[in-house]
Design brief:
The protein is an alpha/beta fold. Helices cover 45% and strands 18% of the residues. Helix 13 runs parallel beside helix 18 and helix 15 packs across helix 16.
Length: 697
């Protein structure tokens, strides 16, 4: 048995000096190590028992059913122990990051609260050595400085005083520093974390969560929460920490399988895949919106992606395509579909007399029965009408309907109805609208991006569909890239709590009419919370991007670095030479982890990648088919870079011909706001008007 000093809370109150803290850390690590040894012993014992069971079953096959449950229980227990072992190993290397000494007004003794990734109770003393960052008492670490403080416990509000607030940096089991924090020191600590080089995976931020972020993470009251966050505000990370909080807070009723993230693409899904495991939770299911709609439409169509839609808008000036996208991105699209559905409900079916055998069902009865089913969807109403009329024949005439009669009855009802083919009904919508030009013919099963959602919305409303009950919370990232029709479909497919997040200023769709007002209209009972402080980029980079697309709400953090540089080259060949030189220098210096060359279009990115290949510069190309990215030199387009961050960003070909309209401005803003430490732009010919005033050449 270990000889540890924390026999009660009074012993922990003596931990004040750095020497005391170092000793306490070693004792905590010993307690964790003892727990790890205990679990490993238990796992070995379970493994031995499993081997004995299997040997016994080979010799006593008739008892297989009896022992099956014991074997299953042992296996389940073993899986839980392995998961706990992984968590404890992570905890051993960094047990906690914060401490508060809290004096409740209702108690005599001060409570010493160490805060880490999860709860940990010492088996010898039964003292809670660490509190989970999601525990109610831990919220004070994020919400208060020294002085008056309170938190919401299950039993009610607990008020008191924080006498000490301390921050630690523990890495690989060693304490690098400890600080008694004030707001000023905490900001310095945050800036130190932000100045670190970019990683190829998003990290957890539990040690530096800010008060406004904490309010979003712990929000329990909103059925629908809208998070509007400026570029670099950490909104996606906060949403993932919110998921982790929910899994902790509602662990009796919700598991990782009950949460779904709608993610913009597979690269982004991979980028965020480390956050929840770092927080001790399983990763949750993720889909792109196209995967979701394909699942619903049972892969009957080849649905255009948002990437393909944006690429087409960027590369061509097809006015008819832009007009189609504009209409289907509007609230009017949903409104007109609703009117069309109401029209179908009134005009889809025309009642007539039906003769079955020697009996006639009068038109009035057929019409009455049909109208009595108004609560059912249109196609289900037609199906149920067969049953109602069959019952009518029996109760009115005591006539037993034969299989042949049923076939005749079904045929008669179908002759009174419109087509059941959803694709034809959707095509007829544009005829009814007298705007056939707004639908590109659905040939070879190809269907434009937003038409897939119009088709799905029609199908849901005129056919029967039950909302997915498995999903209890839906997270929608990049909300600004969703059209009202998509939100309308999502609300039909899911009957659950929703967290939406994004930045209205970073829309990929120039025709988009989605703004905060329209979002709140789509979700009437929603609560809007904002994140206006930008943590990703230096003050100088944020200042530069503000002139591309001004946002009066953005608050840059006071982290300074190099001013963005704009290289004016004589021609495109010279631009490429400059890019080669910059990439070569980056690889030689090894000052940073990542350099991204972010182009307006995928075609431009392919061209740059070929240029680098010709010079044998190792670069990864991120395309719409990519699933992950690594450190080093990355070449991609603005729309695929959205949500990602890189130490250094180069944006090439920033001339007036290439960046001239609203969608170009949006792409330029997205590209530039990916930079954490340094931003470089290149151009030949006249520089784009969007950066003309900002250019420092």
């Amino acid at each position: 048995m270990s000889n540890r000093s924390f026999n009660n809370n009074n012993d922990m109150m003596k931990i004040n000096t750095e020497q005391d803290e170092q000793k306490h850390l070693q004792e905590v690590k010993t307690a964790i190590s003892d727990k790890i040894k205990s679990i490993r012993h238990r796992l070995q014992k379970s493994s031995d028992e499993m081997a004995e069971y299997k040997e016994y079953l080979r010799e006593n096959k008739d008892e297989k059913a009896i022992l099956h449950q014991s074997v299953s229980n042992t296996a389940i227990s073993g899986e839980a122990s392995v998961a706990l072992l992984k968590q404890l190993n992570r905890l051993y290397h960094s047990p906690y990051f914060g401490r508060i000494d809290f004096q409740p007004i209702t108690k005599d003794n001060e409570e010493i609260v160490y805060i880490g990734i999860c709860n940990f109770i010492d088996e010898e003393s039964k003292i809670n050595l660490m509190f989970d960052w999601r525990a109610p008492i831990s919220s004070m670490f994020y919400d208060f400085e020294k002085g008056n403080a309170l938190y919401e416990a299950p039993s009610g509000t607990v008020a008191g005083n924080i006498n000490l607030k301390r921050q630690y940096k523990i890495r690989n089991g060693e304490m690098e520093f400890m600080l008694d924090t004030s707001a000023h020191i905490y900001d310095e600590l945050l800036q130190k974390e932000l100045s670190l080089k970019a990683d190829e995976k998003m990290k957890s931020i539990i040690a530096t969560i800010q008060k406004d972020q904490n309010a979003i993470i712990r929000n329990e009251s909103s059925n629908t929460l809208i998070i509007q966050g400026v570029a670099g505000s950490g909104k996606t990370s906060i949403a993932l920490h919110r998921v982790a909080f929910m899994l902790y807070r509602f662990r009796e009723t919700i598991t990782s399988a009950n949460i779904l993230i709608l993610s913009p693409n597979k690269v982004f899904s991979d980028y965020i895949s480390n956050v929840l495991p770092e927080l001790g939770e399983e990763n949750i299911p993720e889909k792109t919106i196209v995967e979701l709609i394909n699942d619903f439409l049972e892969y009957q169509y080849v649905v255009q992606s948002l990437f393909a839609q944006v690429s087409f808008l960027l590369n061509t000036e097809n006015k008819s395509f832009a007009e189609r996208v504009n209409f289907k991105s509007s609230e009017a699209f949903v409104k007109k579909l609703d009117e069309y559905i109401a029209y179908l409900n009134s005009n889809y079916f025309t009642a007539k007399d039906i003769k079955i055998g020697k009996y006639i069902i009068p038109q009035e009865i057929v019409d009455k029965e049909y109208k009595s089913l108004f609560r059912l969807s249109l196609l289900k109403r037609i199906k149920e009408l067969e049953n109602r009329l069959t019952q009518h024949l029996f109760y009115k005439h005591r006539y037993e309907v034969s299989s042949k009669d049923k076939a005749e009855l079904k045929k008669a009802i179908n002759n009174m109805s419109g087509t059941k083919n959803i694709k034809i009904l959707y095509k007829n919508f544009y005829v009814w609208l007298d705007r056939k030009d707004l639908l590109k013919p659905i040939n070879n099963k190809d269907i434009e991006y937003l038409d897939a959602f119009g088709l799905a919305y029609l199908k849901i409303n005129i056919d029967s569909y039950n909302a997915d009950r498995q999903v209890k919370h839906l997270v929608i990232d990049e909300m600004q890239d969703y059209a009202p029709i998509q939100f309308a479909v999502i609300k039909k497919l899911f009957n659950c709590k929703i967290t939406l997040l994004g930045d209205i200023n970073q829309s990929l769709n120039p025709q988009s009419q989605t703004n905060l007002q329209s979002l709140q209209k789509s979700f009437p009972q929603s609560q809007l919370m904002t994140l206006n402080k930008s943590y990703r980029s230096t003050f100088e980079i944020i200042n530069f991007t503000q002139r591309i697309a001004f946002n009066e709400d953005i608050i840059p953090i006071e982290r300074h670095g190099k001013s963005p540089i704009v290289y004016n080259e004589k021609d495109i060949a010279s631009e490429k030479e400059q890019i080669i030189a910059l990439a070569t220098q980056f690889l030689k210096d090894k000052t940073f982890h990542s350099l991204a060359i972010i182009c307006k279009t995928e075609k431009e990115a392919e061209d740059v990648k070929c240029t680098l290949d010709d010079k044998q510069i190792n670069a990864q190309y991120l395309s719409s088919e990519s699933t992950r990215f690594t450190d080093g030199v990355i070449v991609t387009s603005a729309q695929l870079a959205k949500g990602l961050e890189f130490d250094v960003v180069i944006v090439p070909f920033v001339n007036n011909a290439n960046y001239k309209n609203d969608i170009d401005r949006s792409m330029l803003y997205i590209a530039c706001t990916r930079a954490m430490q340094e931003l470089i732009l290149t151009h030949s010919n006249e520089v784009s008007d969007f950066i003309k005033e900002t250019a420092k050449e």
